[in-house]
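Lay summary. Proteins are chains of building blocks that fold into shapes, and those shapes determine what they do. In this project we predict the shape from the chain. Here is one chain we studied, written as its sequence of building blocks.
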Amino acid sequence: MGFKTNTAALLLLLNTSVVGVSERLDNFSQANLKDIDNTNITLDIGSRIDYYKPFSIPRLSIDDAIRFEIDMSRIEGLLQKEDSIGIVVEDLEKSKKLVAINDDVPMQAASMIKPFVALAYMHELSHSRFDYSRDSRTMELMIGESDNPATNKLMRKLGGPRQVEKILRKNFPDIFYDIKIVEYIPPNERTYKNKASAGDYERFLESLWNDTLPYNDELKRLMSLQKNTRLLMYPEVQIYHKTGTTYMLCGDMGIVLAQKPYILVCMVQNNTRMNHEWVVKKKYLIRRLGQITYDQIEDRLN
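And here is the predicted shape, written in a compact code that computers can read:
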């Protein structure tokens, strides 16, 4: 397995888990997944559906806890052999990266590309090239409701997908290392060619947190509009985020405004077109990884 920690920490983890590993592997049951983007589907994915907190252990790092959960998810079938995963966790108060897994690997962007389109627009707006009073509703639709026609409308206004990438690379070279924006979002939503890495999202979110982007407050407002987050179970915790979903990519990236604010980027990709069941499993996995991150950070703070 890819779990990297010392033997004592691993034994501590296994001995203090609410559900032991052998029980987790043997006690498979039918589970009803609810409250994941309003999805309700029955899947046979094991006994860990009921949430518990096995990782609130001071000696175990967030990185180790996340890697352990990924390994267990592969054993249990929640993650397939062909699934690749990219994750970044950053402590914003310390500007310290706590977890980095495949953070420099470009993956399909899906709708997570939309905040980048918004940033390109805001850059042009800062040079008096647009009238935001005419485009604000379109922007809200693109980010808040993940509306694809609204996204394409703004892309066309900016000169097309490749021009969006050009604006971002030229004006924000310290953020965008791995982006590739080459297509509009097609009617069937099979947007597989646009790409970005977890690191691209993390650097964008860090800049958003540090208020260094044009019309930064408006970008924060826009990214607070989408309600269905996969990163957290608690609706009372504010979050700036954007999800992305196709039948080959499921992800979410955002700033979680917990007692100790942090960035979490998590996305899972499969190079073969999958199905709805695959998407629901990945949404559930991202929710679990997000909850583990939140609990680890909050427990250490308290």
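What the prediction tells us: Confidence is low (pLDDT under 50) at residues 1-58.
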